[in-house]
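Supplementary notes for students who missed Thursday's class. We covered one full example, reproduced here. Read the sequence, then the structure, then the short commentary at the end.
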Amino acid sequence: MELPLADADLRSGAASEFDRHVQSLETRTRRILSCTPRDSFAWLVAFGLQVAHEVSARSFDLLAASYETSPNEAWVGLRRIIVAIPLALAAPEHIQRMILDEFQNLVRHRFVEIPARVYFNAPAEIRALLESRIEQLNPSSKKLFSEELEKLRS
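Structure (token representation):
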């Protein structure tokens, strides 16, 4: 619930409210992870909060924990690619592979709307990485992805 509030504050320019929500999220995420260290979404939130401050090796450790605790949960994976793909070029090679694998698997399993949006908004260097993964898909997955991209272009 607090993530959309923080996002709304950021978009409206309410800096003090945004900072308050971010601090609250950081505190709550630490508490959740201290009680439930297998909560992949909490690890993802921790990653997102960390990269808002700085992108570092520690940041990618948080993302790796999210992958390790739920490698195949689509609802987490869809959110993870939104946050992770823009940083794929900065990720260590093994983490970059996880990011690209997840993108590819989501499309393969017909979760195409968010991957198409991520691809559509990605810079050229990241699109090239994603295209190499799209090319490896079966024809029906490629077609479905292409159709979703066409919706975004129109």
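Commentary. Residues 21-153 form a domain with the Serine Threonine Protein Phosphatase 5, Tetratricopeptide repeat fold (CATH 1.25.40). DSSP finds nine helices and no strands in the chain. If anything here is unclear, bring it to office hours.
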